[in-house]
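User: For my dataset I need records formatted as: sequence, then structure tokens, nothing else. Please produce one.
Assistant:
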Amino acid sequence: MIRSITMRRGEIVLRSDFEQMGSQSHISRIFSDFVKEGRLVRLGHGSVCQSQNQLDHRQAGSS
């Protein structure tokens, strides 16, 4: 799932973007794990964005 998030052009990710991968509670738990790891930043209920570290890593890979 993190690969799918990092490959996106936009920085904001919604839980509904991943509804085909599992239930809302399952996706929310995964988002929470990624927030704890510092990969994502929670914006609100069901929405997150990539952390600055993830964005920096993505930009470094494209340079």
